[in-house]
Amino acid sequence: MKPKPIQKLYYSISEVSEITSVKPHVLRYWETEFEELKPTKNRAGNRIYRLNDIKLIFLIKKLLYEDKFTIEGTKKKLALLRKSRTTQITMPFQQREKENLLNSIKQELQDILDLLDEKKGEQQQEYPKEEVQKKEDVFPLFFDTEEESQ
Predict the structure, then answer these.
(1) 10-40: pLDDT as tens digits
(2) Rounded-to-integer distance, Cα 93 and Cα 66, Å
């Protein structure tokens, strides 16, 4: 499932669950484990998440599921990130995959252009302009020549 683009100011727990692909009960559990994750509640008592909360959830998810940190390891990593005032983790492999994909697409497009240029060159060689006869030569009866008019 692809993550949905973030567009609103506040999100319900079900919307955040759908965006992040993390089940609501897991989000509620993470609130008890990670002090950084504290969504506010509206008048009805429902959790409302902001963009920063969603970014933090993606970070926690990455640390737990992709980097295979434990809950305690994730807490320590978040504390280190908080001290260094950065919450962005570099993902070099994803960037490299994106660059490789773009280079591959660029090469395929260049190959298509080369094929089109070859076809265009072949068509021009098949019908050179010098060999094509003039209309007057092919249909002499339909065209007045200077000799007949004199």
Answers:
(1) 999 999 999 999 999 999 999 999 999 999 9
(2) 12
The residues spanned by each domain of the chain are: 13-84, 92-142
Topology annotation, domain 13-84: Multidrug-efflux Transporter Regulator; Chain: A; Domain 2 (1.10.1660)
**pTM of the shown model:** 0.53
- Which H, E and C letters describe the chain, residue by residue? CCCCCCCCCCECHHHHHHHHCCCHHHHHHHHHHCCCCCCEECCCCCEEECHHHHHHHHHHHHHHHHCCCCHHHHHHHHHHHHHHCCCCCCCHHHHHHHHHHHHHHHHHHHHHHHHHHHHHHHHHHHCCCCCCCCHHHHCHHHCCCHHHHC
